[in-house]
Write a structure and sequence with these properties.
This protein is globular. Helix content is 78%, strand content 0%. With 437 residues, it is an all-alpha fold.
Length: 437
Amino acid sequence: MDWPLFLTLMMGGLAALLLMGLPVAFAFLTVTLIGAWEVLGGERGAMQLARNAADSLSSFQLAPIPLFILMGEILFQTGIAHRAIDAIERVVTRIPGRLSVVTVFGGTIFAALSGSTIANTAMLGSTLLPNMLKKGYSPGMAMGPIMASGAIAMLIPPSALAVLVGSLAGISIAGLLVAGVIPAVLLSAAFVAWIVLRALVTPSVAPTEQLPEMGLADRWRPFVIYVVPLSALFAVVIGSLLLGLATPTESAALGSVAALGAGAAYRALTLAGIGRALMETTKLSVMILFIIALSQTFAQVLSFSGATGGLIGLIEGYELTPLQVLLGMILLLLLLGCFVDQVSMLMVTVPIFVPLSQAAGIDPLILGVIYLLTMEIGLLTPPFGLLLFVMRGVAPPEIGMKDIYAAVLPFVAIKLLVLAAIVWQPGLATWLPTLLH
C-alpha cells in the first residue's frame, strides 16, 4: 500500500472514531492495533504493540506525571488555593481593572502549583466570576482573564503535559519544564498590560470600586500566610531542578510532599480530600499513560509504512528553511487545536514532526515550547476549545457561547504574539534551561 493512502486511512480512521465519540485512548488503540496488524505482520504486530507498551511504561522518567497531578489535586481539594486568591485580592488596589488583574496574578500563581488548566480555570471561575459580574464588569473583562490565565498551567511546572511532550518527543523533561517559565511570565505581563489599557480606554467595562479601609497589617497578613508559603512550593520544584539537586521525578515528589505539608499546616487536610485527590490523580494519570503506551507502536507503524520517510522526503524536496518548516508545523498545530484535544494533537503529529524537525535542524527545546504554547492556544480557540466549555459550566445561564468566544479572542491574540516572539527570539525559551548545565 502506498504511504499517502496508508497515512490517509490511518488519520481518517482516527478522525472518524473521535467524531463518533470514542474516548481518545481507545480510538488510538483501535487505529494503532489495526495499523500494527497490517504493517508489522499480523500477530507479530500485536505482540510488538504489547512489548512496546511494557517498555514505554517501565520508563522512570514518566513518574513525574502522577506526582505533579497529585500535587495540584491536593492543593485544589483542600481549598488552599481559594484562600490564596482571597489574599491576593486584598493587596491589589488602585489599579484599573483591579479584579481582572487579580485574576491574572492568582491564575499564574495557582498555575505554578496545580499544573491543571481545567482545575485552574474552574477554580478561578467559581471564585471570582460571580463577584466580578456583580460589580459591573463586562463579561469580556470578567471571563477573558479567567480563561487566559487558567491556560497558563500548560506552561509552568508542574505541567504533566510538559512531561508528556518531553517523553513522547524525546526532549529533556527538566529542560522543557524550565523553558516554559519565561513565556508564561511574558503572557501574564501582557495580559495585565491589556487589561489596564482596556480599562483606561473604556472605564465602563471595569467600574472603579470603593474598597473598604484596611490597615497595612490586615491587608498583607493573609498574603504572607497563604501566598508566600505556597510560592515556596514553586521554588522547591524549579529551584531543585535549576540547582541540579533533583531530577524531574525527585522534584515532583518533593512538590507532592510539600503540598501535603501545606495542607497539614493549614489544617485543611482530610481523609475525604486526600481520597478525592488520589482518585482524580488516578483518572488523569491512567489516561495519559495509556496514550504513552501506544505512542511507540504508532510511530513505528508510520515509519515502517513509509509515511514518515515519505513526508520528510516530500518536504525536503521543497528546500524549505528551518523557519519555514517550523511555521508550517505551528499553522497545522493551531488548526488542529480548533478541533481536537491536546493529547490527540500530540499523538497525531509527534511521530511526523520530531523526525522532520531533526532533519531541519530545529532545536528540540524550541519544538517542545511551541507544542506547549500551541496546545495552550488550542484550549481557547473556538469552536471546541476545552476551557471555553469549562467557562460555560461556571458562567451564569444568561451568558452564551458567543459571549465566551468574544471574551477570549483578545487573549488568544496576545498568546499568538508571544508565540511569534518565541519564534523570533528563541532565547526567550532556551536561556533558562541553559542554567541546568
